Amino acid sequence: MPHCHIASSNKHTTIEVVINREKMISSRWNRFFCGLVFLCFGFLGLITSPAEAAIKKYQFDVQVKNVSRLCHAKSIVTVNGRFPGPTIYVREGDRVVVNVTNHAQYNMSIHWHGLKQYRNGWADGPAYITQCPIQTGSSYTYDFNVTGQRGTLWWHAHILWLRATVYGAIVIMPKQGTPFPFPQPHREAEIILGEWWNVDVEEFVKKANNLGLAPNTSDAHTINGKPGPLFPCSEKHTFVMEVEQGKTYLLRIINAALNDELFFAIAGHNLTVVEVDAVYTKPFTTQAILIAPGQTTNVLVQAAQASGRYFMATRPFMDAPVPIDNKAATGIFQYRGIPNTVLPSLPQLPVSNDTSFALSYGKKLKSLNTPNFPANVPLKVDRKLFYTIGFGKESCPTCLNGTRFVASLNNISFEMPQVGLLQAHYFNLKGVFKTDFPDSPQTPFNYTGAPLTANLGTSTGTRLSKIAFNSTVELVLQDTNLLTVETHPFHLHGYNFFVVGTGIGNFDPAKDPAKYNLVDPVERNTVGVPTGGWTAIRFRADNPGVWFMHCHLELHTGWGLKTAFVVEDGPGSDQSVLPVPKDLPPC
To answer: What are the coiled-coil residue ranges (predicted)?
Structure first.
């Protein structure tokens, strides 16, 4: 049972909601319970200010559990023995305190994907970027504020490939009394899309890396950890959502897959997109959505069809010559009172290489851009960056073919340090990283022309880009045909950014900026760079610290498709990195 601790002062009132880790209490029950407490104390005159700041405390026990899927049983790493892990329910303005205790055999770190963590990179979570990992038998408390954000985000392991099973949703409700800018739904549900391997993920990745090969594609995709009845031994491993005729539902959809962009649809039902990456959008209706790893999408769906059972389904999008797991995972959208014997109908998902759907879908995404939710797009740019995305091969005498794959930005493959980059920056440790990452490639070429397979001379290093505090940045991410073109979802930690432009082919700095959308571009934290194309983003560097930027395909991240920005402190006392937490894990 939750309990609410109320502390009153002249400045503010704090409610502390402590949530039992064994049975996560629903957000509505928390709100109801704490609302009653507020009401009682309010009548007693103990509350002197309408300002409320809740502290939400969670205990995350990282532990191994035996789980069975697709007729295979194996041990997986979980949080609190749950797969997917527990949902974090908060309200805009809350403080969140998550104590993570690591009982598993692997080092661990948790990233709170999409939370801006202003001045507080210590709570961001990527291993060896903002912290060293939590070792077996140790704990670390992630303590952060949820400021100026509301919507759906998520959390996941940020070390090795452990996020294959260590992930969960973050639901941020608007401030009390603030409605959604769309019709209030009857009910909400989290829909987390993932991947499943029958074998031990860490073992096969290690083996593939040692051989210089790409790891196997997954054996199934999942909806809330379940592949659905189209897979063997999966009748009981099917997510079912019961709905009432005529009611409207809000689905909070998260792509937690490691390596696949995914389509998602519900048979016979349109989806109205109202938010992506915890930023409201101009609503639009579509039969299917496209969602990249790391992204979230909120949709409204009306249960307005003939009462029955309808499959929700997800399947990958891939328009490059790259092998994928193309089987559809399914769940069931079931009208109340319909027996389970009724066979569900399948949705018409776009074909796996439907580039035109992907591009047209992306163009429909626009910021709401209202007085309450403005799109503050930087119109003047202080720093222009142009990063090429490429693959290469490097010598590896112990590998099967004598080489292994590497991936690079501006032909530099990122080398992970042995200490946290944020610590190195904060304490001015020498020799950990350099701030000489080039603003553009040293050798321009026809980026999306014929495939280039010659010796590409990719270098490796821990090279970062230093950004002046509060400067405005434009970054163009350009896919290249170094070995092959491919789509890449890029995630920037510590920031949202505006996607001001995208196109196929080579970016033209003379002509393409004239086509930018600087009025209502979509704002997000993870964006897809199209196959053989480019994407331009803008952001204001007002969050000091060291912030990771990487491809959110785990395969490519492991090959070195990543870098980081060092954003300098500002002049004000509240514009510098916060002091180091006392329990920050040692290196």
So the answer is: none
